[in-house]
Amino acid sequence: MPAIDKELLLESVRVFVDSEFAGNENESVGYKVASALAVNSYARADSALLHRILLYAQGDTWSAICGLFDADSKELQLLMSKRDALQNRAGTAFISTVDPDDVIDMVGDALDAALSDMTFYETLVVFILESGYAKVSDFYNLMGIDHRYWHRYKKGFIPTKKRLLEMVFYLHLDEEDAEYLLNVAGYTLQCNNMTDVIVRFFLKNGYAKEMEPDQLLMLVDEVLLNFDQPPIHSEE
Predict the structure, then answer these.
(1) CA–CA gap between residue 182 and residue 123 (Å, rounded)
(2) DSSP summary character for residue 3
């Protein structure tokens, strides 16, 4: 990314903030995502059906399911990760007992369950590997997180929102994926929160894709301070 004109950047952020706060908050991205998740909260009730599909679908049946998605899609990676976790816990081989056509008919209804049934840690690992890190440890070492502290995430610990926003930048996520990861952790980018709106500006305009995460965090914190907001960077 070329050198950044700080004055132009701050003016651009001001324009974006003004437009976000002036608009109808019910139309904000954060509101839409939160609403969609609320509507789909029924999905957990379908988890037994989903587990049966993931455990028993083999061979042509599983190939047919995978064929419903783009090969590099987040949905397929989440589905495969959940399937691996279930089968590893079961510790045995499975024989398909479900007709392929029946399975395909059920997958559409069960997909929401696949996504909602993923833990925060499982979802985070998918994003880490999808972002190009060879190992999960490469990610948390780069963020300066001790491996013993990282073990807490495996046990179900949810980071603070600020810490998770740091992770978003280290994962080079776009706005859509950032919103998704935040929602899995129980957060959202709120349309009436100055810090969230400024963070969305950087995500929407591709800074996370173009800049090194430590440099981007410094830039975001500088902009936040210009708007009398506390910095994101934390010592967790």
Answers:
(1) 10
(2) P
